[in-house]
Amino acid sequence: MPTSDQVLTEFNDASSEWMHGLPGYAGEREAHDLAQRMHDNAAAKKGHFITFEGPEGSGKSTQLRLLSSWLIAHGIEPLITREPGGTRISEQVRAVLHNPDHTEMTAETEILLYSAARAQHVAQVIRPALESGKIVLCDRFYDSTYAYQGYGRGLSLEALRQITTFATRGLVPDLSLYLDVPPEVGLRRRETGGEEMNRLDRETLAFHQRVREGYLALLRVEPDRWRTIDATGAIDEVQAAVRAAVAEVIGQANRRISE
Ligand SMILES: Nc1ncnc2c1ncn2[C@@H]1O[C@H](COP(=O)(O)OP(=O)(O)O)[C@@H](O)[C@H]1O
Ligand SMILES: [Mg+2]
Hints:
Blueprint lengths: L3 H5 L18 H18 L3 E6 L6 H14 L5 E4 L5 H11 L8 H25 L3 E5 L2 H11 L4 H12 L6 E6 L2 H10 L12 H17 L4 E5 L4 H16 L4 H4 L1
Parallel strand pairs: 1-3, 1-4, 2-3, 4-5
Adenosine-5'-diphosphate binds next to helix 3, helix 8 and helix 10.
C-alpha cells in the first residue's frame, strides 16, 4: 500500500502524452479550456463557496444547519446543499449510490456516478448561486471523492482529478472545513443517531482510516483553503470553531458578520 504522500505525487504526473498525437487534440484546445475555467471562476467569485468535509458522524450536517441559522440571524440567506445531490437528477443518482443492495457496484462506476451528480449540481445550482453573490454551504464536495475513492478505494488520484475538473469546470471551494474525529467515534455516532447507515458507512474501519489519512494529505497540500475543526467536543463547542473559521474568511467581505 503506497503512503498517502506517494499517492498524492500522482497529481503531478502527465499520464496523457499519447493523446497529443491524436487529430483534434491540440494545445490550443487546452488553452481554451483553461481560459474558460478561469472566466467561470472569476464570474463565480462574487459569492463564497464553503464546503463541509470529514468522516460520517463527524457532525457535518448538524454543524451546517447551525451555521445556516446563525447566518440567517445576521441577515444572510445562504444556499444549503449537499453531495451527492442538490438537484432533481443528482438526488436520483444519490439514491443509486447509497442503496445498500448495490453491492456489485465497481469503483469506476461509483466515481462516474458521483461525478455525474456533481456536474449537474455545479452547473444548475452552485455556480448560479455564487454568481448571484450567495454564500453556498455544501455538505461534502470533491475532496470527499479524493478521500473516499482515491485514498479509501485506491483509485488513481490523477484520473480522479481529471474527472473532477471536467465535472466542475474547475470550481474550487473558498473554504473547506475538515471536521476531525477518529473514525470509530463517527461511526458510533452514526449508529446511535443521525442518518441511516449507507453503503460507504458499512466499509471496514481500515477503509475509514485510509480516508482520514487521505483528508490529512489533502490538507497538507492546500493549507490555505482548509481549516481543521476538532469535532470531538460538544456540538456547541464545535459550532463556535466553525463560526470563527467562517467569519475569518467572509468577515471582511461582509461587515454584518463581524459585528
Ligand atoms: N459534537 C457532537 N457530539 C456528539 N454527538 C454529535 C456531535 N455532532 C453530531 N452529533 C450526533 O451524531 C450524529 C451524526 O451527526 P451528523 O451531523 O449527521 O454527522 P455527519 O453529517 O457528519 O454524518 C447525529 O445523531 C448528531 O446529533
Ligand atoms: Mg450528514
